[in-house]
Design a protein that fits this description.
mainly alpha; two-stranded antiparallel sheet
């Protein structure tokens, strides 16, 4: 059984609806081309640049839709700030660098971002 099916079965077992037709292998490709510059090729983070996404409580506790929204809008990272999730709940974040919308890859679609989120779900502890 491949990782995509394990991911989907796991989400369904937890009562969570997966993003429609999300493809974690395509998400891994996008991650390696766009996100790995700051977050590392293994998503383990780069000191002072990008956070460890494999052990991120933010990734683990955010819904797929909230993560897609976060990737769409990016965030300021130069100071502690509160940001609103898509459900309007405030969340504090900190990091030394800005994360541009779509990681700076403006051509990424919402479906591409859903694929990245699906990939993150396969590697998050």
């Amino acid at each position: 059984m491949n990782k995509r099916w394990l991911y989907l079965v796991g989400l369904l077992a937890m009562g969570v609806s997966p993003p429609a037709l999300a493809d974690p292998s395509h998400g891994a490709t996008i991650f390696s081309q766009v996100c790995s510059t700051c977050h590392g090729s293994d998503a383990g983070g780069k000191l002072g640049v990008g956070l460890n996404l494999k052990e991120s409580s933010f990734v683990r506790h955010s819904s797929d839709q909230d993560l897609i929204h976060f990737l769409e809008v990016g965030r300021e990272g130069r100071r502690r700030l509160a940001r609103r999730r898509s459900d309007n709940e405030l969340v504090e974040t900190t990091c030394g660098f800005d994360m541009p919308p779509k990681g700076g890859a403006s051509t990424l679609t919402r479906a591409d971002l859903a694929d990245v989120v699906a990939y993150l779900r396969t590697i998050t502890k």
